[in-house]
Automatic annotation (TrEMBL):
Localization terms from the record: Membrane
Sequence ranges assigned to domain EamA in this UniProt record: 198-338
Predominant location category: membrane
Pfam families: EamA (PF00892)
A GO molecular function held by the record: transmembrane transporter activity
Family membership noted in the UniProt record: Belongs to the drug/metabolite transporter (DMT) superfamily. Plant drug/metabolite exporter (P-DME) (TC 2.A.7.4) family.
Keywords tagged on the record: Membrane, Transmembrane, Transmembrane helix
Cellular component GO terms, alphabetical: membrane
Name the record gives this protein: WAT1-related protein
PANTHER family: WAT1-RELATED PROTEIN
Membrane topology: Multi-pass membrane protein
Annotated TM spans: 20-38, 50-71, 83-107, 113-135, 147-165, 196-216, 228-249, 261-287, 294-315, 321-339
Length: 366
């Protein structure tokens, strides 16, 4: 009887944990979508993207440090090697400065919805990068490789459709068809259309940089498994590097770029970009430990859906049917890649448990 009651109690605890994880991940994606829309508002007011990166990165490092100390202090090495410092510098330069600058430029020239959809390319691009560096098995005769290639191609097709079947003129109109979008793009002004394409190229370039950085992160985590520490340290380093870049390129330091950016908006960057995003990251890391990276990755498209709703409600930015089709293609490709990797990991589980090689891409999908 006591054993049965204990099993029932454990079952209730497991159910509550499942509800907490699923509900929490859904909430995290909604919160992140809100921050993307808030960032778009800042850029529309004339905020300097480099200054936004500096403030947000410094705040993220400050808010995330207590979590890193509490959860990962015992994993810190007694001596920091030069290799680790070099890896952290590259992650900071690519993941904070380059990636965020490209993404912010992309948001500024397109819409928050397009920007939040592009990162769904990441698993496919990570597969390509990892295969090039021989961190991921690539066998043309293997069904898993073929499926991941197919998923990546579908993702890229969706990104192309999103880029070319949406234009600045259609983002404020809810009745645009793909044909009308192309015609409007040609008549609404070439400069706007080229800016749109440039923004999409910035987003794709940003996601590509993110894929490269993620491969480096996975290699770094293999030697020092402390993801929160890595995020905090690289965010602080990235904020410092970005401040130097702003000083060199623009001759100014920590200048928000517009008098419209008052103290309230700066506080919003600190609280949302640092505290809220930091808490979301800490929760996602905890979920990674409980459920694995594949499970967490499945919730990525929720952010795009929430961003689309918020953009339509607050900014009057509406996607064309062509771009909606592109997003559906991108989501389909994403889930093909994730489903394939899930099956591949299941097939290799016995080998990994038997002391096989470190599965780098398992960390890559985090």
């Amino acid at each position: 009887m006591l054993r049965r009651q204990g099993e029932e109690g454990q079952g209730r605890i497991n159910l509550l944990e499942e509800v907490l994880i699923v509900g929490g991940l859904l909430l995290v994606q909604c919160v992140l979508s809100g921050y993307v829309v808030f960032t778009d508002h800042l850029l529309a007011l004339g905020a300097d993207p480099l200054a936004v990166i500096v403030v947000g990165g410094a705040a993220y490092a400050a808010f995330g440090l207590p979590f890193a100390v509490a959860l990962e202090r015992k994993r810190w090495p007694s001596k920091v090697s030069g290799t680790l410092v070099a890896q952290y510098l590259l992650i900071a330069l690519g993941g904070t400065t380059a990636f965020q600058e490209l993404m912010l430029l992309g948001i500024k020239k397109t819409t928050p919805t397009i920007a939040s959809a592009m990162p769904n390319l990441s698993p496919g691009l990570i597969f390509i990068v990892a295969a090039c560096f021989r961190l991921e098995r690539f066998d043309k005769a293997c069904k898993y490789t073929q499926a991941k290639i197919a998923g990546t191609v579908v993702c890229l097709a969706g990104a192309v459709a999103m880029s070319f079947l949406q234009s600045p003129s259609s983002s404020s109109s809810s009745s645009s068809s793909p044909t009308a979008v192309v015609e409007a793009a040609g008549s609404a002004g070439g400069d706007d259309y080229y800016d749109w394409i440039l923004g999409c190229c910035c987003l794709v370039a940003g996601v590509t940089v993110f894929a490269l950085v993620t491969v480096l992160q996975a290699a770094t985590l293999a030697s020092l498994p402390a993801p929160l520490t890595m995020c905090c340290v690289t965010s602080a380093m990235g904020a410092a590097l970005t401040a130097v870049v702003q000083l060199v390129l623009e001759g100014r330091f920590l200048d928000m770029g517009s008098p419209n950016i008052d103290a309230t908006l700066v506080a919003g960057i600190v609280v949302l970009g640092g505290g809220v995003v930091g808490a979301c990251t800490a929760f996602q890391v905890w979920c990674l430990g409980r459920k694995g990276p594949l499970f967490v990755s499945v919730f990525g498209p929720v952010q795009t859906v929430c961003t689309a709703i918020l953009s339509a409600a607050l900014l009057r930015q509406v996607l064309s049917l062509g771009s909606l089709a592109g997003i559906v293609l991108m989501f389909s490709g994403l889930y093909i890649v994730l489903w394939t990797k899930s099956n591949e990991i299941s097939a290799d589980e016995d080998q990994l448990q038997g002391g096989g090689a470190h599965d780098t891409e398992k960390a890559l999908l985090a």
